[in-house]
Amino acid sequence: MQKNDIFELTITDMGIDGEGIGKYEGMTFFVKDAVIGDKILAKAIKLKKNYGYARVEEVITPSTFRVAPPCPIYRQCGGCQIQPLSYEKQLEFKEQKVRNDLIRLGGFSAEEIDSIMEPAVGMETPYRYRNKAQFPVGYDKEQNIVTGFYAARSHNIIPVDDCLLSVEENSAILSEIKAYMDECHVTPYNESTGKGLIRHILIRYGFTTKEIMVCLIINGKSLPSWEKLIARLEKIPGMTSISININREDTNVILGNTTRCLWGQPFITDYIHLRDCENDFAATDTAIAYRISPQSFYQVNPVQTEKLYSTALSYAGLTGDEYVWDLYCGIGTISLFLSQKAKKVYGVEIVPRAIEDAKQNAQLNHIENTEFFVGKAEEVLPSFYKNTRGEMRHPDVIVVDPPRKGCDRLCLDTMLKMQPHRIVYVSCDPATLARDLRILADGGYTLKKVRVFDQFCHTTHVETVTLLVRK
Ligand code: SAH
Prior knowledge:
eight-stranded mixed β-sheet; Rossmann fold; seven-stranded mixed β-sheet; CATH 2.40.50.140; single chain; alpha/beta; binds S-adenosyl-L-homocysteine
């Protein structure tokens, strides 16, 4: 086998990034855009000793799991890695990923996992679910102003005003901003020269309130003739907040530190409803309001978030008397949910600004049984354990929702010392979840429930909620 050789390949498996995997003459090939079950003509593009990478030259016989991707630019964009896979198969892929990691990396037996895994929770309509979009701004070859997305692994903008994962309202907003830029000779930012003004357009949408927030991230102190922009945007139904954010650094980080509200209020409000897990996730009357500013961290798929948080709350098994810790609490989203049914909830989060939001959101909802701490979970929890007496030292429940790298060992060890009856682990990375669950299981806990949630349909991201109970 040589580079650029063309050969027939049957795709028999799927890799962790959604790529197709097939075997040819003892070599394993990874093929982007190939779907499990496809028979393809593959072109070898990179060869290693026992494996290689190939490209799809032609699909000879398409897999029965293949669907026509509805997005015209899905292949260039790279944001949706598994859009050509039927939605049912996508859910199965995510469930298998969690199952395999729990068995391979977590050392749980297949029987154990199969007996406790609940069916994956997908979306009825897996499109238009994102409440936040960030569009880079630039020029095309003809020097027209374009907004869109970066092509996979590059900073070339693919012009697109409508992403099928985002809300339809975005297109009209982007058109008005481009028209304003043309009218007032406002330039897009150029990464290589550091010149030009407008870098990104951030749009957030409240699914329940229909409030819209627009924030222009600019490489400068102010926006010329900004009243003209406001005049265009304020006509859009739902427009609630228009602001600029200043970012003059040479960086890939989108937002800078300073935000100035130009029109309306500096935030939008949205609600997260508690759903009835026993009753097909029917909405209930309980809802928590959240204030969202341009910088706030907020779950991007509100429909699935309601199901995920409601499941976390149901796994916590609260009756009203419990003392609960919510570690890695962000803006307190889960904490405020838990507080509805707990005696007291303590939240811990590393980002000070998020804790400010958490406290404000508690006030906004007249919630008085929460307390929030800024700091690392692996520092706050051990120091609390060492220096304090009382119920929170041996809480009834601990909920964790760490970033991809999972929980710090010291945090897990302290959780074990605190001996809560239940631990609810919300995870966005099955591999670190499996690692951490093993530590908790060896420390005296039984894994009782595992459920996969599809928060990011058409991508390979997987979210999981699990329940552990003390032996
Ligand atoms: N539970 C929240 C946020 C989960 S995201 C929600 O559902 O909205 C994970 C959070 O962990 C982020 O807000 C991140 O800032 C925070 N974080 C990261 N490392 C941390 C650490 N060592 N200690 C505490 N919080 C941390």
